[in-house]
Design goal:
Order of helices and strands: EHEHEHEHHEHHEHEEHHHHEHHEE
Number of strands: 11
CATH superfamily of the largest domain: Crotonobetainyl-coa:carnitine coa-transferase, domain 1
Protein name: Carnitine dehydratase
Strand content: 5-15%
Keywords: Transferase
Largest sheet: 6 strands, parallel
InterPro entries: CoA-transferase_III, CoA-Trfase_fam_III, CoA-Trfase_III_dom3_sf, CoA-Trfase_III_dom_1_sf
Number of helices: 14
Structural class: alpha/beta
CATH topology of the largest domain: Rossmann fold
Distance between the termini: 15 Å
GO molecular function: transferase activity
Shape: elongated
Oligomer: single chain
Number of domains: 2
Helix content: 25-40%
Length: 366
């Protein structure tokens, strides 16, 4: 059931995209009240189906599914008929594909002047990289994700989630909501050019700009914080220490200074002082945290006002008291997997979650 206040309650979006960015953007808008019709290639469907039902459900729960071969006249005509009564189309092909299919913005606007076309591509519709192949790691590399040093003992390692894809999906969803509202006010749609590379560049650019002056000596960068890092514990686990404000360093020294007197070294009393001795401070903390198991550190830091967190494993995460209390993750009845609710609380409520996952071309499959 959709709340009466929801401005997306009568919005229809055609999702012709695959994998993560486009489908996730449509999923976010579905959670905010929109109806989403998933258009897939007959036989194979969205490529993410090859990774299993849970992977497909992650980004396509609650969507209808229609199988259309867009390379045929019949498929194209059926797609245009859907677009005639829709608010937006989301596609994730390389630039030029929609035009070759006869389904570009001009073709869609001819049957529905208020339609919004959102094209999500790796490098955007223009520019020298527009036709290049790419996935998340490629966009991160080219957007300077690893250009900003952040650790005393820094290293390049891949992120654990598809950061650039999620950045793009968030911008796509926000832009779609704005463009749809504008089209409803003025009767004129538009073409949204969402570049995954642009999206992550908007996150990395400031840090990379500042890092230009520290490429020869990365540790000197202000983004390298010796007391704001991940540390290994005696049992091979890890913890996160998020000290940024000086008051937290003072609290750490008060709590552990008797046993580890170097924490009270006057040279480290200020942030500037610690920055002047980054290696020594980082090595001090690393040695200190290796003296106890993670559970012991959890018990010790529990009552203290210090930004400490254990690095949770996959099994621990879903049993965490705060995760359970907030209710972002839920277990749909009869499924082995999970569903993730919209991660923002609305005081007037959001639509109840649609847990069905449509089979390829099976409509709503409720």
């Amino acid at each position: 059931m959709k709340p009466e206040w929801s401005c997306l309650k009568d919005v229809t979006i055609i999702d012709a995209s695959q994998l993560l960015p486009g489908p996730h953007a449509c999923s976010l808008l579905r959670q905010l009240g929109a109806d989403v019709i998933k258009v897939e290639q007959p036989g194979s469907g969205d490529s993410i189906r090859q990774l299993g039902p849970a992977a497909y459900a992650q980004f396509n729960r609650g969507k209808q599914s229609i199988a259309l071969d867009l390379k045929t006249d019949a498929g194209r005509e059926a797609f245009l008929e859907l677009a005639r009564n829709a608010d937006a189309v989301v596609e994730g092909f390389r630039p030029g594909v929609m035009k070759r299919l006869g389904l570009d913005y001009a073709a869609l606007a001819a049957v529905n002047p208020a339609i919004v076309l959102c094209s999500v591509s790796g490098f955007g519709q223009t520019g020298p990289y527009a036709s290049h192949a790419g996935h998340d790691l490629n966009y991160l590399a080219l957007a300077g994700y690893w250009a900003t040093p952040v650790q005393v003992h820094d290293k390049v390692s891949r992120p654990r989630v598809r950061v650039s894809d999620y950045a793009a999906s968030g911008y796509a969803a926000l832009s779609l909501a704005v463009a749809i509202m504008s089209a409803r006010q003025h009767g004129r749609g538009q073409h949204l050019d969402v570049s995954i590379h642009d999206a992550i560049l908007s996150w990395t650019a400031h840090g990379a700009w500042a890092a230009r002056g520290h490429e020869a000596a990365p540790q000197e960068s202000p983004t390298v914080m010796p007391e704001n890092d991940l540390f290994e514990t005696r049992d091979g686990r890890h913890l996160a220490m998020g000290i940024l404000e000086n008051k937290f360093w003072v609290n750490l020294g008060e709590a552990l200074g008797e046993k580890f007197p170097a924490l009270r070294d006057p040279r480290y009393a200020t942030r500037a002082g610690r920055y002047g001795h980054k290696l020594a401070v980082n090595d001090l903390l690393a040695a200190m945290f290796r003296t106890r198991d993670l559970a012991e550190w959890e018990a010790f830091f529990g009552p203290l006002d210090i930004p400490f967190s254990p690095v949770l494993g996959a099994g621990e995460l879903f049993e965490d008291a705060h995760v359970r209390a907030r209710g972002v993750v839920r277990r749909p009845a009869g499924e082995d997997g999970i569903a993730v609710n919209f991660p923002v609380g609305f005081s007037l409520g959001l639509p109840e979650g649609d847990d069905f996952v449509a089979g390829l071309g099976k409509g709503t499959a409720r």
